[in-house]
Amino acid sequence: WTLASGRGRQGGRGRHGGAGRGRNEAAGRPGTLANIGILSALSPRELALLAVECDWRDISRNEIIVDLSQGGTLPGVSFVVKGAVRLSRSLGVAGRITYSDVGAGQQFGEMSIFGVTDTGLTAVAREDSTIATLPDRRFIALLSREESVSRALL
Q: Model's pTM, two decimal places?
C-alpha cells in the first residue's frame, strides 16, 4: 500500500461476500477492464480473458470492502472499474489516520504479491462502485508475461 500511488489492499469473498468468479452481481455477465490504466497496453482478447478470471462486485456507497483490523482478507489485486474507493490506515499508537482515494481506472492490493501487508488498512466505497479482483497467482503470472504491466507498477 503506497500513499503516493493510491494503492492498497482489498478483501473479497468470505465475510464480505462477492459475486461468482468472473461475473458481475448486477448484470450477470463479465465486465470490462478496458479502462484500467496499468492494463492499457493489453489486447482486447487478453483483457477479456482477465475479466473472466476476476471476482466482480458491485459495492454500495459507504460499504466497507475490507477491514484488515477486523480479520478481512486480501485475495488479489482489485481494479476499480467504476466509482471510487477510499483507503485508510492507522499510523502507530497515536491513532493518526491517513487517507488515499482510488478512482475508476486505478487499482489497489498489488503490493501484497510482494509480501507487503498492512493490518490497519480499511477500504470503503466513496460512491457506488464496481470492483474486479484478480487472484494473486494470476496477477503474478501477468507480471511475468506482460512487461507493460510490470512497468506500469514501477
A: 0.78
Q: Which residues contact 4 (CB under 8 A, 6 or more apart)?
A: none
**3-class secondary-structure state, position 3:** coil
Per-residue pLDDT of the chain (154 residues; tens, 9 = 90+): 332 333 333 333 333 333 333 444 444 445 899 999 999 999 999 999 999 999 999 999 999 998 877 777 778 899 999 999 999 887 767 677 888 999 999 999 888 777 777 677 889 999 999 999 999 999 999 999 999 999 998 8
Give the torsion through C-alpha atoms of 112, 86, 49, 46, to 10 deg.
-90
Residue 34: phi and psi, rounded to 5, are -60, -25
What gap in Å lies between CA 116 and CA 110, rounded to an integer? 9
Give the containing element (helix H, strand E) for 129: strand 129-135
Q: What angle do CA 77, 32, 23 make, to 5 degrees?
A: 75
**Residue 64: exposure state from Cβ atoms within 10 A (0-12, 13-18, ≥19):** middle
